[in-house]
Structures are given as structure tokens and as C-alpha cells.
Amino acid sequence: MSGGLAPAPFAPVARGVLEFRPMIEWDEMHLSMRDAVRKFVESEVKPKRDALEREEILPYDILRKFFDAFGVAEMNRARGESEVRRAQKREEAVARGEAPPARAKRDGPDPQAGLELAMRMIPVIEFCKYSPGLITALGVSAGLTPNAIISKGTARQIERWALPLLTLEKVGAWAITEPGSGSDAFGSMKSTARRDGDEYVLNGSKTFITNGPYADTIVFICKLDEGNAPSERKVVSFVLDRGTKGLEQSKPLRKMGQHSSPTGELFLEDVRVGRDRLIGESEEGRGREGAKETFVSERTLVAAMALGIIEQCLSLSTEYARTRIQFGKPIGEFQLIQLKLAKMEVARMNVQNLIFRQIAMAAEGKSMDLAEASACKLYSAQATMEVALEAVQLFGGNGYMSEFHVEQLCRDAKVLQIYGGTDEIQISQIARTLLARG
Amino acid sequence: MKILVPLKRTADPDNANKIKIAPGGAKVVTDGLEPKPNPFDEYAVESALRLTENGTNPKARLAGDSVVVATFGAKEASQTLRQALAMGADSGLLFEASDENLDGDLVARALAKVVEREKPDLVVMGKQAVDGDSNQVGQILAERLGWPSATFAMSIELSQDKKSVIVGREVDGGVIKLKLALPAVITVDLRIVAPKSITNHVTPQTHNYQEGARYAPLPMIMAAKKKPLAEAPFASLGVEGVKTSYVKFEAPPARKAGIKVKDVPELVQRLRAEAKAL
Lengths: 438, 278
Ligand SMILES: Cc1cc2nc3c(=O)[nH]c(=O)nc-3n(C[C@H](O)[C@H](O)[C@H](O)COP(=O)(O)OP(=O)(O)OC[C@H]3O[C@@H](n4cnc5c(N)ncnc54)[C@H](O)[C@@H]3O)c2cc1C
Known about the structure:
CATH architecture of chain B: 3-Layer(aba) Sandwich
Shape of chain B: globular
Low-confidence stretches of chain A: none
Number of helices of chain B: 6
Helix content of chain B: 10-25%
Oligomer: heterodimer
Number of domains of chain B: 1
CATH architecture of the largest domain in chain A: Up-down Bundle
Order of helices and strands of chain B: EEEEEHEHEHEHEEEEEHEH
Bound molecules: flavin-adenine dinucleotide
Number of strands of chain A: 9
Helix content of chain A: 40-55%
Largest sheet of chain A: 7 strands, mixed
Structural class of chain A: alpha+beta
Strand content of chain A: 5-15%
Structural class of chain B: alpha/beta
CATH topology of chain B: Rossmann fold
CATH superfamily of chain B: HUPs
Strand content of chain B: 25-35%
Mean pLDDT of chain A: 92
CATH class of the largest domain in chain A: Mainly Alpha
Shape of chain A: globular
Number of helices of chain A: 13
């Protein structure tokens, strides 16, 4: 542009007028958290990885140490206690014949929520660099299981069972999958509860249950059999303790990966429980919707697991490409190897951006709907699997050997496409939402 | 009681094998290595925290006690100070400087200025930085201040009246205990972070600390953001002049591969005949 100043197309906005802070990178506090957790993982998890992989030690002591050292147990206890108080208020209101107070929903930005989500995700990312199974075990024990009790349970139930799970004093399991019912969890569910006087009699078997072999507290999801057709039965959940008569917890199943997360079967034969163990102490337990809420939070966490695995594969691969010499030069100089690294980097950027979006949304007081959470999970899981397979390939024979760890991450990654809803189920959920938008 | 802990950032000591020597041996190149706090300095922070708290409630300093951390380094070194604040220190001081323009003597003189301003009752520091391994700042600082000092501390016992400390030092065949009147300078060794190395007559005798420097709990990391961290140029301390100049750096010679022996008799035979060790 020659001559004088061109007029600005838009009037410049005075600084400070707009408080617009998109999340484009981890901030200083996030990095402090990452460094602290990384130090823990490198000194407490890394040396025990082989023992965890060979299933010589269980994941729970390491996780408890993390919970105590990082104040997570304490924060979770405070959260659990506030949930107990909230449930008490709700029960008091109902007893007075009033409408239960709605869950306080903030309108507008909520930076604290963003920070809290970041605080949950950062340890997930760091742990998954070495042992994704630890996060599977942790997510079920201190996340999925107590959350199922909190979302529908009474104050007494939350205090009695959710609190010790939130602090990891107790190990939890959440059981919906059965030998004959997986993706179609509710449709083909065979487990039943029958009323018998003041009690219920529970029967059925569950499989692929994370922490199943060692759980102290189990949320058992089944159908209320009132003599009606299975498709019309209500879905209800019960809390069971380890050692309850008629409950059998199997040994860990042998599996492809995730060796640091024990997975097992549960068998229930005429297990008798009181109404105090029926979550919500009501047969109108909103069983199906409750499970859906659980899916959203489960799916968002998968992106953080994915990023941990991807970052680790990328950093191991880059280092290997730099140092492995063939045909007289580092393999990183071959274009086919460069392509692998570049694809891994693209995946890393995309998954990291999905995580930033989730954190930014939380800070804005928003959350993903089920379709977006599904898209996020689908992409993260597939990208992780591709990256991990490419990493094995880049390492050649060493990639196939345990010593170099990419084979472990590769086997561990596969489950991200299966649990929390398979890829195929995510795809159909996304498509159904799109088609319904009309 | 107020404790000053000087901190230094060093290139990731766990990956020290990755450092390189610049062509001509002019300097050590640490590119690509993550900066981490010098481990002995972390032990010093841990020691200072243990001296100023009840171990059963490590979140708060005892009434009247405080821990100040200080560093001379790049702007990014504030991250290292924040880490110490998240562990429990109360405030941080960053004097912006570049490592190349510092030596042990200048750091000690600068620290003496910080001591003049901050007036701590005790300086606790690492016995050495794991990059240069010079092991001299604590000693020079004590000399300049005219304070008593104890180096390589493996235990510290603070007297009930907080006027003196008894410092344990490991020596061949045993432990020497030195009594120092405060103010004083202590440099610490690895064993200072054993479960019972520090006694302050407040933490119950039965209390066992976790081995090592503590992790910063996540809520403390958030709280650390609000703690005071002052930044100033190094020049504001009014000291200058490096007395050490490095002539040349050389990487240690690559180690020759060892040999494998069949059995114990062969080992003994070789130790006797070749190594002449027996
Ligand atoms: C390591 C691990 C831990 C687990 N932990 C738990 C746990 O703690 N608690 C728990 O309850 N469950 C758990 N599960 C179970 C997990 O949620 C199920 O495996 C998953 O939901 C899939 O069900 P399924 O295995 O029965 O597969 P199926 O549903 O039988 O699926 C078989 C194949 O058919 C496809 N398919 C099914 N339906 C459709 C459709 N409508 N359209 C297109 N394709 C379809 C699937 O995508 C899949 O490829 C865990 C599983 C694993 C592997």
C-alpha cells in the first residue's frame, strides 16, 4: 500500500473490553501440575511398570499413594461430603412435600470448572505414558462407580459407599456388561432382581468387569423382574459388598493389554439384599438415563488417555528415528519414516485440541452433548491405535520387543476402541444425531 | 524462624548422558534437556519445610515461621520457584541472570546480599548443583557472612528455643554431630530426606515422613499462584565480576566394553592374573 495510512477496516477494540481467552496451550499452572505428576510417574510408576505388566503387583497401592501425595483423596472427600449434604437437602424437601431443589447450575463462565477438568486430565495423560491400565482401574474405582451412586443414591448411600470409593480407601467396580449383552447393554440384559418381602433377590452374571476380582464395593445393574416382558422391565442398580453370600468374584481374566487393570467376571446366585442397597431406594431409579450421563464423562476421559499414549509414542519414535542408523544414516532421514512422525504429530495436535476444547467448554460453563463426546472418543481412540501401530513399525524388530514399550502401548491402546462404547456404537450415535437434526 | 533456600535450575540430571560438548570444547550444550530443579536444592526445600511445620499437618508453616526461596537465573526459572511455593514455601525471589555470567563466588556474594535484605535465621541449601558439581557456594557464603556452617548435613535438630541446631554429618565409620548457633548456613546431602532426619520438637517423634522431597499437592499448586514472587534484575543486588573462567570442556573418554566370565573360578583367576586386584 503506497502513500498514507489506509483506514482500519474495523475500529480496534480497546484492550480489556473483551475478556476472550481461548485455550490454545497449557498455561503455567497446568504445566506445574504436569511437572509434579510427571515426577511422581517417573519415580513411582516407571520402576514398577514391569511388575504391573506381569501382574505381579496390583495397581491400587500406587494409585492410593498418588491420591494421598497430591491431595486428591482430600479434594474428593470434600466433594463427596458436599454431595451428601445436597442429597440430604433434597430428601428433607421431599419429606416436607416440596419440590426437590434443582442442582445449582451456574450460568455463564466457570473458570474453576475448567481448571478442575484440566486437573483431572493432566494426571491421566501422564500416567498413560507408562501404564494406561492404571487409569482404567482408577477411572472405574474412583470415578464411574462412586458417580453412579452419587447421581441417584440417597444421602446415606453416598456417605456409606461413595465416600470411601472417592478416596480410594475402597476399590470399586461398575457392572453392566454380561456374556450375552455388551453394546446392547439394556436390550439383552439378563440379570434380574426379584422382590421378596422387604428384600430383593439378585441373579445373573457379569463379565469384563474392571476391578471385578478385587472390588470391595460393586454397583450391579440389572432388571426388575415383576413377571412382565424383559423389554418392559425397569433398570435398577444395587450396591454389593465383597463377600456377600451368593456373590462370586472371578480371578482376573487373561487379556491382550491393560495388564495393570484387573478385569474379571461376577456371578450372582440368589444374592439377598435389603432395600437400603437399591440405589436411590426407589424402583424409579432412572436407570437408563443415569447410565447415559456416565457415558459422557467416560468418553471425555478417553481423549486424555489417548493423548498420553500418543505423546509417548511420538517422543519414543522421534528419539529412535534420530538415533537408529541404517544404510549409513539415521532412519529419520528416510521419507517413509518422516511420514510416520508427521502423521503422529498431526494426531497429537488434533487430540490435544479436543482436550483444550473440553477444558475451554468447561470454563465457559458448557459441556459436550453425547454426540460430540462420542465423536471425540471415536477420533481419539482411532488416532491412538494408528499412532501406536506406526510406532511399532518405526521401531522394527525392537518395536515388537517388550523392552522398547511401544508394543505395550499398542496393546493397551486397542481397548480405547472397545470399552466405553465401541467405535461402531459411537459412529451410529453420531450419525443418528446428525440425521435427527433434519 | 525464617529460612532462606537458594534454588538452581539444572538440565535434567536423569538424562545427563545426553549433554554434548560444543566444538572446540568451548562450552557444555544442554539443548533438548528439560530444566529441572537441582535435586539437592529440592532436598533443601524439603528440609526447610520440615523444620517449620508440624509433620502431621504439612500444609501450613508454624506460627511465626516462613520459608523464602530465591534463584538467580532465566525468567523461566520462576517455574522452579513456583514449584517450591506449591510444596509449601511462602514467597519467592527471582533475580534475572544468565548462568554463563555467574560463578560460585559471585553467587555466594549475591546470596549474601539477599541475606542482608531478607534477614533469615537460617540458610539451608543443597551441598552442590549437579551440573557443575563445584560444591562451594554454601561455604563461601558462610565465610562472607561470618556465620557458622555445616556441610553435607544428613540430619538437623532444631533446639526448642530455636537458637541453635545440631547437624549430623556422615563420615567414615560414623556420624559427627555439630552444634551451630543461629544464624547459620547448612548444606544438605541426600540422607536429609530420610523419614526421620529432621527434628523440630513440634512434629511428633513417631511421625514418619515419606522418603524424598514431597510432591506438590494439586490444590497447593493452585494456591501457589497467589503467593508472592518478586522479580528483579541481578544487577539490582549490586555485585558483579566473575572470577572463574573455563579453559576447556572435554567429554569423559567412552568406556570400553567389559568382558563376560564363565564362572567364579574364571573371575577369580582373571582378577588375580589380569586385574591384579587379589
Ligand atoms: C478391558 C475392558 C474393561 C471393561 N470394563 C468394563 C466394566 O468395568 N464394566 C462393564 O460393565 N463393562 C466393561 N467392559 C465391557 C465393554 O464395555 C464392552 O466390551 C463393550 O461395550 C462392547 O460390548 P461386547 O464386548 O459385548 O461387544 P459386542 O456388543 O458383542 O460387539 C461385537 C462387535 O459388534 C459391533 N456391534 C455391536 N452392535 C452394533 C451395531 N448396532 N452396529 C454396528 N456394530 C455393532 C461392535 O462394535 C463390535 O465390533 C470392559 C471391556 C474391556 C475390554
